[in-house]
């Protein structure tokens, strides 16, 4: 399994001949190395409805035929845009042909703002547990630090975790480092920082606070083989 990071919270997973994109915010993301025209995902997984996470999902799914997996309210809304969606909810897991997806709790908000300025309710925000090839990847989504992260770590042996460190909208570096103690991944990657002025952070500070896990500060385009 090859996992790559592409700025903000964008993660690509390549496994078993399939390509999965998580939170594909490409256009408007100055940190990403991706282009919408250059991606042909088989599946798109979304943590929540904010525009900097839904990103280019509709355009990508229409061009590639990718199935979009999200919490049910967001999936229902995106389904009206003419794409294939699967709506799930927190605690639920499903075995797809590209791997197993399970949605976990996250503490944040979730709404999508249309081009006309309308705000669409996106249901609960979520983290995502993805399992394939005997490995488990956890994308925490946008969240604060919360105690049930310990349950996630106890219930799942996490090989690689992506956690937000930007502060302001999510947990900052110090809380994220404590979250790593609860999640207990083998390797952790900081995400959701430096994209916008309010979330400017030094990932080295986060790294210096983490104990018990390897910290990989990934640049857009960097990859990890699990």
> How many domains make up the coordinates?
1
The CATH topology corresponds to: Metallo-beta-lactamase, Chain A
Number of DSSP E strands: 16
Unreliable parts: none
Helical fraction equals 10-25%
Secondary structure class reads: alpha/beta
CATH superfamily membership: Ribonuclease Z/Hydroxyacylglutathione hydrolase-like
CATH architecture: 4-Layer Sandwich
CATH top level is Alpha Beta
Keywords: Hydrolase
Domain Metallo-beta-lactamase: 7-192
Pfam families: Lactamase_B_2
GO molecular function: hydrolase activity
Describe the structure.
By secondary structure, the chain is α/β, with parallel strands linked by helices. It has one domain (2-216): Metallo-beta-lactamase, Chain A. The chain has six helices and 16 strands. The chain has a seven-stranded mixed sheet, covered by helices on one side. A seven-stranded mixed sheet has the order 7-8-11-12-13-14-15. The protein has a two-stranded antiparallel sheet with strand order 9-10. α4 packs parallel to α5. The mean pLDDT is 98.
């Amino acid at each position: 399994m090859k996992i790559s990071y592409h700025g903000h919270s964008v993660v690509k997973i390549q496994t078993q001949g399939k390509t999965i994109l998580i939170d594909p915010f490409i256009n408007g993301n100055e940190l990403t190395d991706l282009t919408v025209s250059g991606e042909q995902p088989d599946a798109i997984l979304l943590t929540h409805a904010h525009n900097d996470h839904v990103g280019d999902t509709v355009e990508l799914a229409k061009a590639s035929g990718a199935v979009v997996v999200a919490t049910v309210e967001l999936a229902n809304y995106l389904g009206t845009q003419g794409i294939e969606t699967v709506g799930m909810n927190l605690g639920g897991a499903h075995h797809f042909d590209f791997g197993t997806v399970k949605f976990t709790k996250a503490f944040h908000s979730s709404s999508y703002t249309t081009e006309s300025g309308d705000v669409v309710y996106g249901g609960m925000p979520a983290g995502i547990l993805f399992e394939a090839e005997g490995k488990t990847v956890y994308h925490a989504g946008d969240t604060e630090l919360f105690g049930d992260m310990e349950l996630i770590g106890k219930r799942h042996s996490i090989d690689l975790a992506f956690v937000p460190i930007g502060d302001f909208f999510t947990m900052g570096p110090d809380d994220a480092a404590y979250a790593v103690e609860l999640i207990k991944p083998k390797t952790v990657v900081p995400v959701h920082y430096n994209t916008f002025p309010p979330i400017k952070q030094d990932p080295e500070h986060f790294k210096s606070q983490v104990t018990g896990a390897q910290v990989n500060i990934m640049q857009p385009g960097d990859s990890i083989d699990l």
